[in-house]
């Protein structure tokens, strides 16, 4: 397949000019494949949607009023896990609602920082937003390691990551919470597994954003990644090991160079720094190699059982979920809430389109909570 031209090529040219040579060029290309889930296409200029969402959202918070996202490292399933939290449960609300974001791969929750803040703002601070990283996908600081010494289970596989999310929900989410699960990419597969394995969890909605829930190997990106995942994962880990010795300022510069010319949120830049760690690289690619082997037919039985809770949002040009997947799902469940993007949103929306995606999700949930409780959560 012809590889699209990206700003990575600019970075490679600079490295070659600096004396990096062909070997370094190939190695950097190899490690850059870890970022395959971060779509590097430019966003076509499109007219942005309005911030007004029907009659449900009465008043949004100002940007300055949105609290900073809190960063915590919790012990989940015996492993120190990075969790981000935006906002608290309101004291004057009869029901407690909570967004929980389950990321794609790489499962670095820092990529969703702006999306979380925008989602919280769109609801006027009435629904807190949490996000949980995949085990092993984030560099753990020393202070978090101390309290978890000798407990870690090692590298987590794909099924281990699902168990990890279930453990988080059961042990860290208050039981009386009305949970709104947001899956992104392969995180959508995990949302379906949570619905199937945890009927006792009170899930209001399961939002499937750009879902990668079937035929990993047959997707354009999956077929392109197959050689790396099956045969050259060790090389990517080795390159990450070499690059881990670079000064932090150089790592930061390389990431900025990769995203040069794009209005990428600083949180996404900081999140990308985790990928210079060889353990993180190995965890991400090991999980992806198991996705390749395990994600085949969609679980239509589970989807049918929970169809009233699910909202699917497919991309119009998504290398991880072609439009044919949307059409097949729509044909299988014509009565389901299954949508095809008309706004040019990319698979890696967290890089530049967090505000627009948060606006849509907030609208869907305001309508859902209004239908459930007779009035919207947002009371202004």
What is the strand content? 5-15%
CATH top level assignment: Alpha Beta
Largest sheet: 8 strands, mixed
Q: Count the DSSP helices.
A: 14
Give me the side-by-side strand order of the main sheet: 1-2-4-3-5-6-7-8
Number of domains: 1
Order of helices and strands: HHEEEHEHHEHEHHHHHHEHEH
Rg value: 20 Å
> If you consult CATH, what is the topology?
Rossmann fold
Terminal-residue CA separation: 51 Å
Give the integer mean of the pLDDT values.
84
Helix content: 40-55%
State the fourth-level CATH superfamily. Answer: Alpha/Beta hydrolase fold, catalytic domain
Question: What global shape is seen?
Answer: globular
Oligomeric assembly:
single chain
Please count the beta strands (DSSP E, at least 2 residues each): 8
Low-confidence stretches: 1-58
CATH architecture descriptor text: 3-Layer(aba) Sandwich
Subcellular location: Endoplasmic reticulum; Lipid droplet
Pfam families: LIDHydrolase (PF10230)
Keywords: Endoplasmic reticulum, Hydrolase, Lipid droplet, Membrane, Transmembrane, Transmembrane helix
InterPro entries: AB_hydrolase_fold, LDAH
Protein described:
- The radius of gyration is 20 Å and the shape is globular.
- It has 380 residues and is of the alpha/beta class.
- It has one domain: 3-Layer(aba) Sandwich (Rossmann fold), CATH 3.40.50.
- The chain has helices spanning 7-17, 21-32, 113-122, 142-146, 158-172, 187-197, 220-231, 233-243, 248-258, 266-272, 278-294, 300-305, 323-332, 354-373; strands at residues 70-76, 79-86, 97-102, 129-132, 178-184, 203-209, 310-314, 337-340.
- One of its GO terms (biological process) is lipid storage.
